Amino acid sequence: MPEKTLGLKVERKDGERIRKALVEAGVFDRSRKISSDASHVFLPILEIDERLAAKLGRIGQFEMVEINFQPEEKAINPEDILGFRPSFEIVGDIAMVEDRDAERVAAALMSTNRSIKTVISPVSDVEGEFRTRRFRHVAGEARTVTLHRENGLRYRVDLEGAYFTPRLGTERQRIAGLVRAGEVVLDMFAGVGPFSLLLARKGARVIAIDKNPVAVKYLRENARLNKIVDIDIQEGDAAELAIRSENQADHVIMNLPHSASEFLNPALRAAKQQGIIHYYCIAPEVDLYRDLALIKSEADEIGLEVEMLYRNTVRSYAPHRYNVVIDFRVKKPDLTLRSLT
Description:
With 341 residues, the chain is of the alpha/beta class. The chain has eleven helices and 17 strands.
């Protein structure tokens, strides 16, 4: 009989979302099989810290258990071949790997995952006006365009022409759980549409803005691909276009983590009374929520109040740096509602 190992007992309805969060955090124990009973699933894990436990608790209730998980039939994986665990992301059928040992990692990935057709490696950080990355071809088909599936939707994306990461899939689902049909959502940096289309499918009235013409091209294509017609797609500068929705948005999504703070003023103005802004930034581990002061200062300058609702780390971005989300409610005095100056 296998020895008892650590796991999470979760209700069936929350099982898949928590499993995905565990996988994204790198703590799902792939060497053990998931088990279940009539009402719960049992997910094998390696270990979780307090921060991850708090994040999982916001997805659904869970209980730490030690049970006899059956061993998973071991298939050869890249770590077996390489002798170390490589860092990579998969978007559609394209794997993005770090430049170090890129050719060896590519060979290991393609030999163990037949769905990977292309391997590329970034040769730049996120850069330029449109916040894109440049890549070099490492192995397989020489292309950067792929079709990615997430949360029941399909997204065609050119990874060199528009920024996209699959590591926000769980976060996008969290936001979808907060938005109700009929609410107005302003997505200020929509990219190829992973927030916008998910929320539009739910029945929200989405205004999707992006300055990058390549991103907007794929956003329109992805709307057609998923048969979503009730969405307002706008190409242009978010600082200018957001003002057209002044005092209208129930939710404002600010997923531009390197420079969202520069757009706080138009976002605050676009939010309606009691509207909620979902703000993303990159922050050091020692001061994760430093942008709270920026948010409050910007609101004070235009005579508004903000109420913090939620804050969390979304993903690790670099050593000791994290992608952080801060949700806050905007409170507007009656005078401000009539005329913001």
